[in-house]
Amino acid sequence: MADQVKLHGNWLSPFSSRVIWALKLKGIPYEYVEENVADKSALLLQYNPVYKKIPVLVHAGKPICESMIILDYIDETWPVNPLLPSDPFHRATARFWIKFIEDKSLVLWGVFMANGEDDREKARKATLEVLQTLEEQAFGDEKFFGGDEINMVDLAYGMLARWMPVIEEVVGVKLLDPDMFPRLHAWAENFRQAAVIRDNLPDHAQMVPLFKIRREQLLQIARK
Ligand SMILES: N[C@@H](CCC(=O)N[C@@H](CS)C(=O)NCC(=O)O)C(=O)O
User: Fold this and answer.
1) Using one digit for the tens of pLDDT, what is the confidence trace for 115-140?
2) Of 53, 173, 166, nearest to 114 (Cα)?
3) CA-proximal residue: ligand 1, atom 10 (nearest)
4) What is its EC number (predicted)?
5) pLDDT more than 90, % of the chain
């Protein structure tokens, strides 16, 4: 079909989930292609020859790569239920915090990838600093970032609501502490409970054993 929408993703990926949530929030029908990131399909390599990563959205045969660029594309192509504020100042603020999480996402995975006690402690402190900045500067007392409705910033930060608790369990360290970060913690709870997110959120219990295996693999590679 001329305007067919296809998503190449992986169910464990927070970047894929961003796109799924955006499509669902806008009610856009799409076909989902589950990719094995350890054995990428020829089609994925053809669609994203530069980074060779999921997610890739294919609309009318044309591939769009990088999750936040895909979200912009979705928002511009299907304006129903806008994902960004219409006011230029609020839109600029939303984009600022989206850039912040894009810049800091490796820090947030630091504890998961850290090798040894010292590295882990350094990574834990770096993560807490990022969370502190978010707690003090980004998240207010509203239900979601933009108020009562989920917007693009919430989707960008979805990793904190599901993947971070999985990292905490796999590594055995508390990061998103409700006493230290009450606003962020409340936001994560609200986000997980929103119907579109709740119905399209990978299962914590299913993720934990797979992330344990992945972490072991990463640690083995680092030891070599
Ligand atoms: N910046 C990218 C990150 C995407 C990404 O890291 N995807 C991972 C899965 S979570 C991937 O495809 N990894 C395969 C690889 O690195 O070879 C985005 O936002 O889309």
Assistant:
1) 889 999 999 999 999 999 999 999 88
2) 173
3) 13
4) 2.5.1.18
5) 92
